[in-house]
Amino acid sequence: AAMENLGSSLRHVDHHVFDDVCRLLGDGKRHIHILGVRISGHMAGNLHTHLQMARAGAQRVPTAPGHWPQYLMEIGAGDVLVVFDVRRYDARVLEFAASARQRGAKIVLITDQWMSPISRLAAHTLALRMEVPSGWDSNVVTVFVVEAMVAAIVNQNWKATRERIREIDHYFENGRRGR
Questions:
Q1: Cα 51 to Cα 8, 40, 90, 150, distances in angstroms
Q2: Which of 24, 56, 106, 141 has the fewest CB atoms found within 10 Å of its own CB?
Q3: Backbone region of residue 55 per phi and psi (left: phi > 0; alpha: psi in -120 to 50; beta: other values)
Q4: How many CB atoms lie within 10 A of CB 44?
Q5: What is the Cβ-side half-sphere exposure of residue 77, based on CA atoms within 13 angstroms?
């Protein structure tokens, strides 16, 4: 079922939309804010970890809504909010996305085949197949798409990304040596 979902998602995702999303997330002039709650929070964390390594200006919005007002205040015109929102949609996530859009952010939505209500607000939507014969939906396709996005984003400016990773590695190495 997961392989079927992957094939179906690859056939149905508009590759131009995928490329536009990657260009948007790779634009170093834009701040990126990433939100996912519950299980989709892990997908948001995965994207955040990779983007934070590859470029400056990537921030993860915590999964706890009690912290969201402070993070919302950091979102400005031209920023991008990436929202992972799958079924059992959370009205608070919709409210956060609506507020971010009012503040001038572009919304990138990663959702399921049933389409989060946030799709009405999103500049770009990637709808992925997730249903499997289980009590839980599968994140195989989401992980695949996040990794493909990261690869495309890194390739946009590999020289700067490579230097950033070298510098990060330098700090890790010096920290282990106690310098």
A1: 27, 17, 25, 7
A2: 56
A3: beta
A4: 24
A5: 0
Q: What are phi and psi of 56, to 5 degrees?
A: -80, 160
* pLDDT of 9: 87
Q: Which positions ≥6 away from 150 have C-beta within 8 Å?
A: 47, 50, 51, 54
Contacts (Cβ under 8 Å, ≥6 apart) of 69:
none
